[in-house]
C-alpha cells in the first residue's frame, strides 16, 4: 500500500513518532512518502497514494499552524483517500477524562477548520523534555506534572508514548483502509 504521512512537530517528539511509524510501515512492505508540513513539499495527486496518516502535537489547545494550513490547502485531495490522525499530547496520558476530551475537541476543531475528516484518530501521549526547556517552561511543566502525579525530576526527559498502542492503531488502520477506499 502507498501511504502518505504528513506531520508537524514543535519539540521533536512527533517527529520521533512519525519516524517509528514510517519504519514500521516500511518493514511491513508499504511504500511511505513522508511530508513535513513546514517544508515546500506538495501533496501528490490522490491516485498516487492509497491512504494518509497525519500526526501533530497539541500545544496551547491547537495543532501547529503549518499543518493546519497545509491540510486545509490540500483537503480535497486528502479526503479522496482514507485518513488517520495521530494527535500527540501529554494530556493523552492523563487519568482525567476531561483532559482527554479536550484533545478530542481539538481534533474536531482541526477538522472543522481544515475540511479534512480522518476516519481513525489516535491520541498518543507525548513527552516532557525538561532538559530542553527554558527555566520558566521547565518550572511551569514541573508544577503541572506534580499536580497530575507525574514525574518532576527535571534532570532528565520523560516519555509517555505507548508504542504498542500506536503500532496497533496503525496496523488496524492500514488493514481497514483498502475496504474503505472509494466509500468515503
TrEMBL record:
BP terms from Gene Ontology: heme biosynthetic process
This protein's UniProt keywords: Flavoprotein, FMN
Single GO MF annotation: menaquinone-dependent protoporphyrinogen oxidase activity
Source organism: Oricola thermophila
Domain Flavodoxin-like: 3-144
SUPFAM superfamilies assigned: Flavoproteins
Keyword Metal-binding: no
Full protein name: Protoporphyrinogen oxidase
InterPro entries according to UniProt: Flavodoxin/NO_synth, Flavodoxin_dom, Flavoprotein-like_sf, Protoporphyrinogen_IX_DH
Coiled coil (residue ranges): none
Amino acid at each position: 500500500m502507498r501511504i502518505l504521512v504528513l506531520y508537524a512537530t514543535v519539540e521533536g517528539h512527533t517527529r520521533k513518532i512519525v519516524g517509528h511509524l514510517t519504519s514500521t510501515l516500511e518493514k511491513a512492505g508499504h511504500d511511505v512518502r513522508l511530508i513535513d508540513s513546514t517544508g515546500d513539499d506538495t501533496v501528490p495527486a490522490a491516485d498516487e497514494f492509497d491512504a494518509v496518516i497525519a500526526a501533530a502535537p497539541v500545544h496551547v489547545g491547537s495543532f501547529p499552524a503549518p499543518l493546519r494550513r497545509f491540510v486545509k490547502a490540500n483537503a480535497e485531495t486528502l479526503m479522496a483517500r482514507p485518513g488517520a490522525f495521530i494527535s500527540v499530547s501529554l494530556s493523552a496520558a492523563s487519568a482525567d477524562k476531561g483532559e482527554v476530551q479536550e484533545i478530542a475537541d481539538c481534533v474536531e476543531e482541526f477538522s472543522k477548520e481544515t475540511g479534512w475528516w480522518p476516519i481513525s484518530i489516535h491520541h498518543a501521549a507525548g513527552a516532557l523534555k525538561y532538559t530542553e526547556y527554558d527555566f520558566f517552561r521547565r518550572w511551569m511543566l514541573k508544577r503541572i506534572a506534580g499536580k497530575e502525579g507525574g514525574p518532576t525530576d527535571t534532570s532528565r526527559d520523560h516519555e509517555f508514548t505507548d508504542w504498542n498502542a500506536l503500532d496497533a492503531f496503525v496496523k488496524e488502520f492500514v488493514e481497514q483502509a483498502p475496504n474503505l477506499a472509494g466509500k468515503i
